[in-house]
Amino acid sequence: MRRTGLLSRPAHPDPRTREGLFRGAAADRVPALLAALALGLIAPLGTRAAEPDPPPPPVAAPAPARVVTPVVLSDLPLAGPADRRIVLTFDDGPDPTWTPQILDLLIAHGATATFCMVGTRMEQHPAVVARVVNAGMTICAHSRTHDEQLADKDPQTIAAEVADVADRVPGVAVQTFRAPGGNWQPSILQASVAHGMQPLGWAVDPRDWKRPGPAAIVAEVQKQIHPGAIVLLHDGGGTRSQTVEALRTLLPWLAEQGYTTAAP
Ligand SMILES: [Zn+2]
């Protein structure tokens, strides 16, 4: 190819030059404008279309304060048939072995979960607590010592056990409480509400803590799951390798079914 020099004009004018752009646009627009006029898509000058003014945009109302009710929540209230939110909950941690593995899987699948933590275990594993919080997961209070007979204790003991987890993560909103062993007596319900924490139950329980095998955990969740369901799983209180294995199957399966994970 023969070089023509820097100042010579190219054989074909660049349509992106100012002149080409202007001329091309003006020429192309005229038929389109005429067609739009003919179709009534735009009004000729001076003849404003008799359309009502659009409604003003809604003024964003402040989010209502969370209402805590003395009712054990097992399902999220749903917004409609298209709402397929579920809540994954992990009890009895934090655990330095299993909690990070579960966290990694949740993050890899873009899922969120609620960790129902035990105060004495938080005291032992503060770095794991920090990882859970920094990953944007939700903390639920699961008492200080996981005493399943807590309901029979004196009011001061119950109050101290219920308040313990939130006191360990200042600045983190701990808005739910789950009774140890799911033992919801009126004294526990009342203490939870008095501390501004919604009693958090579950609708789906694959009994992973009994270690029935990953396939059984997967099958039970698949059988029981439904929109709004709160799912009970465990990251602490024992070897949770089966729960971790089950999640490797469940997290992609839930996404395929159109479920999304939410905070309670
Ligand atoms: Zn528990």
TrEMBL record:
UniProt-listed InterPro entries: Glyco_hydro/deAcase_b/a-brl, NODB_dom, Polysacc_deacetylase_ArnD
Pfam families assigned to the protein according to its UniProt record, in alphabetical order: Polysacc_deac_1
Gene3D superfamilies (UniProt xref): Glycoside hydrolase/deacetylase
Coiled coil: none
Region (Disordered): 1-20
Start-end of Basic and acidic residues biased regions: 11-20
Ranges where the NodB homology domain occurs: 84-262
Protein name: NodB homology domain-containing protein
Lineage: Bacteria, Bacillati, Actinomycetota, Actinomycetes, Pseudonocardiales
